[in-house]
Amino acid sequence: MSEANVSEANPSEANPSEANPSEAKGGRVRRAAAIVTTVLAALLVFLALVTPDQVSRLPAGSYLPAAFVRVPIDGVIVIAILLVLPRRVRRPAAVVLGALLGLLTVIKLIDMGFFAVLARRFDPVLDWPLFADGYRFVKDSFGLPGAIGAVILAVLLAVGLVLAITFAVMRLTALAARHRKAAAGSVAAVAAAYVAVVALSATFIPGVWVASSAAADLAYDTALKIPEDIRDRDAFATEVAQDRFRDVPGDQLLTGLRGKDVVVAFVESYGRSAIDDRGLAAEVAPVLDAGTRQLTAAGYTARSGYLTSPTAGGGSWLAHSTFLSGVWIDNEQRYRSLVSGDRFTLTRSFGRAGFRTVGFEPGVTYAWPEAEFYGYDKVYDSHTMGYRGPSFSWSTMPDQFVLEALQRAELGRAQHAPTLSEVTFTSSHTPWAPVPRMVDWDTIGDGSLYGPMVANQEKAGSVWKDHAKIRSAYARSIGYSVQSLVSWLTTYGTPDTVVVFLGDHQPAPIVTGENASRDVPVTLVAHDPAVLKRIDGWGWQDGLKPGRDAPVWRMDQFRDHFLTAFGPAGDPH
């Protein structure tokens, strides 16, 4: 029988698709699915390569797509390497490189969060303890279910992203290997395009260059962290050992404050933007001006300047330790090294000079071994101040209650030794909602009266849906903290009361915007003219509100300035 006759006798053998259309349809579906999967894999890898590590670098609206018109040279180099590798090692190499790109993408997403909250990049060596603090913040602000849900979502996202990008790189590698000639031509063409856009400095969006090496730059910066942190550890050991006040006898310390009650108050998130930013200052400046007038009427004088904080958006303990130790503490490694040593702190200087030293720490909800390092005789935390009212989101109690507790437990006693009281305010802590209101001092009691105040205010989850509301809530919280301190001083202060209060850091960029300074206001208030005379050389300005040209010191410089001014060398006579 001829081939023609065979075909006519059994047409299914000549054209199987006509005999089994369901198989043909299934084949088309599989091919389409394969194409879609490959396109998605390419898109995922491309986005992992070119997406910036800061949300602020992505323009809003119709300009957003233009930010992704980029040529990733690092991706081109990886494909070229995979193409020249022997077949037996190509697949394992693709797995390793895919997993690495996935991990870098997770770090990039974490960087986005760090820049949004702390105005800096994530340190993969030192910053892991901050995740525990973040969990506690979410738990305190949004409840246990919200915190658990956030952890589960974050873990699933991280693991899923690493697996998805690894799979995508493996798929694209297999495709390039099957079409080696076309892939090699594409690599050469894209490399040439990269050289061209570099030469032209091409950009469609200001600050976002078409030529991209974002993933390679992130890998390089991340790899450098380990040796940088080792060098910083050694540098810190040298810095902390240098201390000209360490061995000064007690009778030569703080002679200008003998017989005084000194209060050092940290106002959470009180940054320079609260004064310089027009929108924020519209609410904060009137409070500062009114406070200056109230203090003047009560016989007090205020002088103000600025300090540059080692942190922004969070990490209050870094600022507190820098201020009290006189050493620059801008990361966890430095902080842990500091508090495990015996650095002579400002608190210890008061103790050596014969003052009683106490701390009022409403933000301390767990054991706080650092208290011994700082040198407190006694610490009052969130459990020991007698508060029975509700929390205000993250803040365990209002600032006014903390000051009432200070007065009741220490400074209001008829007979008490000259005291240094370090007070940490938390009412202006993120998320700034709800914000307490001032009440009569004699009605505070155990804080139960704050229950209706919390119930009748907008909660953090609602406020954080509106950027304008966030800024307004922040400004009101700063105003409340300052009002609390001024009201306490004019109500309970004496001619022997001296107050130093300062911000610990600027609030998050969602309030300040990008590229805000790290400066925070600092103010000294006293009734005794002799105290103020000792700081004439500082150049600080009158009132609670420093001007734009007020002096700016690094925060670690304050301790030595203060001990010098109020020691024998600072006596104006």
From TrEMBL:
Record SUPFAM superfamilies: Alkaline phosphatase-like
Biased composition (Polar residues): 1-20
Membrane-spanning intervals of the chain: 32-51, 63-85, 97-122, 142-170, 182-209
Domain Sulfatase N-terminal per the UniProt entry, residue ranges: 315-508
Stored InterPro entries: Alkaline_phosphatase_core_sf, Sulfatase_N
Sequence segments annotated as region (Disordered): 1-25
Entry-linked Pfam families: Sulfatase
Keywords, sorted A to Z: Membrane, Transmembrane, Transmembrane helix
Protein name stated in the entry: Sulfatase N-terminal domain-containing protein
